[in-house]
Amino acid sequence: MPSEHDKSAGQDTSLDSNGFPMDAWPAHGDDNIRRSSVQSSGGDFSQSETLGTQLEKTTSVKSAVLNKALSNDVERSPPIDPGPPPDGGLLAWTQVAMVHFTVMSTWGYISSFGVFQTYYRTALDVSPSAISWIGSVQIFLLFIVGTFSGRACDAGFFHYVYCAGSVLQLVGIFTTSAATKYWQLFLSQALCTGLSNGLHFTPAMSLLSTYFAKKRAIAQGVALLGNCTGGLIFPLIAQQLLPRIGFPWTVRIIGFIMLGSNALTITCYRTRLPPRKTGPIVEWSAFTELPFMLLSIAFFFNFWGLYFAFFYIGDYARSEIGLSYRDSINMLITIVAAGIPGRLIPNYIADTAGPLNSSIPFAFLNSLMAFVWIGISSRSGLFAFAAFYGFGAGGIQSLYPPALSSLTTDLSKAGVRMGMGFSIAAFAAVTGPPLGGALIQQRSNGDYLYAQM
């Protein structure tokens, strides 16, 4: 039974608005209970606050990642610096060999145009000046397209540009084999092949310049020997096969050689520098640099008269000296073969003396030989002229790319600046031989005096 104390306690106890006894708080030991309760509730609050903060942070991070993924301005990590050019090694010299094959199928084919000049003059009823436009447009497009293909190479599209050039080159050479009229030859050999050369040459040379610094001139000289390789092989093929199997299959055999060359180069080319996505196609500030401008003007005049002898020496041998068709091709082979030492010796010297200084004596030699040509009237004299002229022309041609590279301190701009320099030379190359052909027609007896002067 409950005690009287308990009964009195139950009767006297009043309740608060929540139904709890008014005297139930505080009581003995309740301070400890309250303290424990407050600590417990405070801990739960702190934990909830921490979880909320973490949730907010997680949401913020996810939002930031999503915004970056959806944005066009995604921040990319900076490209890895490949360091200075290796100046040697297996990969670097492999690129030299590949550029050699590229030059063989571009400049080597152009250097052989004297064979076509002589053949077209007998097979087509057109003037020598009109025929020379085919070769001149090839050179013009090789140079002028280099402005755009060089910039594309800097932007990281080397292989795309080069493969497109390979397709055009093969289309051009095989359609040339089927051409029978002047306009067909102009479209296939001048335009199509010329465009392909522009997509090949400048990107290949700019890629090579990224592998060498101290040995750049000699490396480019070895690569440019491809001009002589093609300039020897293609005329010899024409000399031996044209009388036997005719023009169409002779040109097709040259095309199959180019097919093999393209397959090899596409497989082995390797770019070294990271792409430079930003930047103009033409770096106009380069034209404010006096050395760049003077170099471009000087080589404009060098190239203006340089290719006249390559195009017309075979025709001159037949019409003025009275040599046979075989001997006229041998004359072209001589002028091309003399370019082998003309590309190696000056480029070897240029690594020490500089490409600009090294080009001066070769420019003087070619200018002198142009006037010596006026007095030549014998077979032996013409062979001697071809040897000296080919040596000097080889030096001028091979020193121009390293001279442009020497004025480019930022190798990521090598393609665009080399393309700009080549574009200036393009206008000299496209007008020089046709002007020479027009000057030949101006003479009543059709001799070469005006053109030689």
Could you explain how this protein is built, in words?
The longest helix is centred in the middle third of the chain and has 43 residues, at 226-268. This protein has 17 helices and no strands. Helix content is 77%, strand content 0%. It has one domain: Up-down Bundle (Growth Hormone, Chain: A), CATH 1.20.1250.20. The chain is mostly helical.
What's the short version?
With 453 residues, this protein is mostly helical. The chain has one domain: Growth Hormone, Chain: A (Up-down Bundle), CATH 1.20.1250. The chain contains 17 helices and no strands.
Q: Which parts are unreliable, with pLDDT below 50 for 5 consecutive residues or more?
A: 1-13, 23-29, 33-46, 68-77
The second-level CATH architecture is Up-down Bundle
The largest pleated sheet is described as:
none
Q: What's the overall average pLDDT, rounded? A: 81
CATH class call: Mainly Alpha
CATH-defined topology: Growth Hormone, Chain: A
Count of helical segments? Answer: 17
